[in-house]
Amino acid sequence: MSNSQVGTALVLLAAVLWGTTGTTQALAPVGATPLAVGALRLIVGGAFLLLLAWGRGRLRGGGRWPVWPTFLAAISIAVYQLCFFAAVSLSGVAVGTLVAVGSSPILAGILALLIWRQRPSPHWLLATGLAVSGVALLASGGGDVVVHPVGLLLALATGLSYAVYVLSSKTLLLYQPPDRATAVVFGLGALCLTPILFQSDLTWLAQPAGLLVALHLGVMTIGLAYLLFAQGLARVPAATAVTLSLAEPLTAALLGIFFLGEWLPPAGLLGIALLLAGLLWLARSG
Fold first, then answer.
1. Distance CA 36, CA 57 (A)
2. N or C: the chain end with fewer CB closer than 10 Å?
């Protein structure tokens, strides 16, 4: 496999792990609020990444730490958690997911053009168009659509924060290895959200199901997933990585169908097909 194909596979694996987040949250005990779950997810994941990097001796060593990319990556990953859960609570899962996930590859492409003068390739444009169309059909495939102005702005902020995280991390990876960069960024991001835990009811963590949910969200969907993503991001363009991340809603939809007994109308099934076609085209074109 070429370097680009390895990077593509790593990003897709990370997105599959992210796609288990919704199913895991559905299994959380009563009392697990979205805000507390989002903060706890980042804190557990950040602690796991720091401990892993420290145990492997990866926190020691040289290399310059560019201040602004590190700061932007940490802040954007913390903002992502808060904005996404708030957007979904105001606008509903359909619209919140559509705007947040669907806007991120477009915003990443625009930022890459403005910052690095990277013009999107025809392959990226076609794949992104197919994938975003699939997300739109998938997100609007069922349930009532709720349009809330503040919710829409928060969803756009979610997509923008993810795009900023990816582009900042891409710059950071020029100076630091992926595991060290990811550990420091998520450790700083976790510090930003720690005050939320002091204002949240965490009694649900005393239940075995609650503890398992927290560990899976933190260790698997943050720790392992973002380690894979950072390794992949070092091998593929930032805009490509964001588009490949749309495998997350595809995974979530398939898990909902096969494990939660959810039903999708024909529009939702067409959305899955378009999303899969876009991802396969981008993976094939490299």
1. 31
2. N
Q: Encode burial over 161-173: b for 16+ CB neighbours within 10 A, e otherwise.
A: bbbbbbbbbbbbb
Identify residue 148 by its one-letter amino acid code: H
Helix axes 67-116 and 122-139, enclosed angle (nearest 10): 110
Task: Determine the Cα–Cα distance for residues 1 and 193; give it in Å rounded to an integer.
Answer: 39
Task: State both tokens at 14.
Answer: 């990370």
Kindly write down the DSSP assignment for every residue of 123-151, as one continuous string.
HHHHHHHHHHHHHHHHHTSSS-----HHH
CB burial class (10 A; 0-12, 13-18, 19+) of residue 199?
exposed
pLDDT in tens, 39-69: 999 999 999 999 999 998 888 777 788 999 9
All structural domains of the chain with their residue ranges = 3-285
What are the backbone angles phi and psi of residue 232, rounded to the nearest 5°? -70, -40
Contact assessment for residue 71 and residue 172, using Cβ atoms and an 8 Å cutoff: no
Angle formed at CA 137 by CA 213 and CA 107, multiple of 5 degrees: 80
Q: In degrees rounded to 5, what are phi and psi of residue 124?
A: -65, -40
